[in-house]
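The material for today's practical consists of a large collection of protein records. There is nothing in a record beyond a sequence line and a structure line. As an example, a complete record with its sequence and its C-alpha cells follows:
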Amino acid sequence: LAIAEILANEPDATRLALALSQKIAHFFQVRRAFVGTMGDGTIAVEKVIIDGEAQPLVRHFSSKDEAVGWVMTYKRSYQCRDPRNDPRLSAAYVQKFGCKSILTTPILNFQNHLLGVIEVQDRCDGEHFDENDVALLQLVAMQSAPAFERAHLFSKMGGWANAVSNLLAFNASLNRQLDPSKLIHRLTEHATQFIGASGGLAGLVDGTK
C-alpha cells in the first residue's frame, strides 16, 4: 500500500526514485537498494539506500556497466549469488558495496521501452534472493512504470511551458524592435532556446544585389 501511494502521488522522477528505493529496501528487508532512471542512453542513480539511510551515489550506468548494464541490454531480471566471481560485475563495484547477493530488474512500459532499473542487494536474513523475490520485484517494477512515464511527461510539460514563455517574450520583443539586425538577433536567440540548441546562426537577404 505504501509503495502504491508513492507511485500515485509523486510527479517528480528523482524524488519518486528515492522514495521508491526506501520503500523497496523496507519491504524486501535488504541492506541496500536503489532505483535508477533512463536518460540519454544511461541509467542515472543519485541515491542508494544503505541500511535504511539514503546515501549519495551519483552514478550513470551504461549498457556495459555491472548487472544494471546487463539488464539494460537484455531487459530481463538478473540474479547473482556470487558477486566476487561474476564476470559481469567489476571488482570495484563489489568492493564498494561488499555485496554477497544481487537482484536487478528492469522497469518497462507496455511497449517494452526501458524506463529505469531497480537493484536490491543482500537480504537482511543472510539468505540469497529466491524466485519469490524475483517475482515480487518484477511486480513492483511493472506497477512503477506508469508513475515514471507520468513523471517524464510532467518534465516535458515543464519544458513546453518554458518554450511558450520564450515565444511570448519573443513576440513582445518583436513589437518593440523595428531594426532588422536587432530583430534577427532576437529571433536567433529565442529559436535556440525554444529547441534547446547550444547556438544558432541567421542572416538577412541583401535585396540590393
Remarks:
- The mean pLDDT is 84.
- The first strand starts at residue 30 and ends at 39.
- Residues 49 and 197 are 36 Å apart (CA to CA).
- The two ends are 73 Å apart (CA to CA).
